[in-house]
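I am hoping you can look over what I have pasted underneath with an eye to the fold:
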Amino acid sequence: DRKTEIYQEYSDLVLQHYHEWHNVAKYAEAMRITVPHLCSTIKQASQRTAGDLIVDAIVTDAKAQLKLSMSPIKEIASSLGFENVAFFNRFFKTHTGITPKNYRNGED
């Protein structure tokens, strides 16, 4: 049905663009639908918010890069679309409960 199609298209776009588009409005614009319509459809289809899916993609990639590479945190932040490493650190800690540095070092 249409809800499933919108959810799938949104999910695909998030996977393609999460490192540059952090705002739900950008996805709605690309899909040519309104933000409220996108948000309500995603919520109905997945029981999660549209923003949650973006956050999940960013956090998953950040965790992988922190564990699997020795790239400086500033470079990882930049690769995920954060111009400011302090903002990335706050974002990561807000969504994981731990700083990127502590996550990389295996600390809780």
Q: What stands out?
A: The chain has a mean pLDDT of 97.
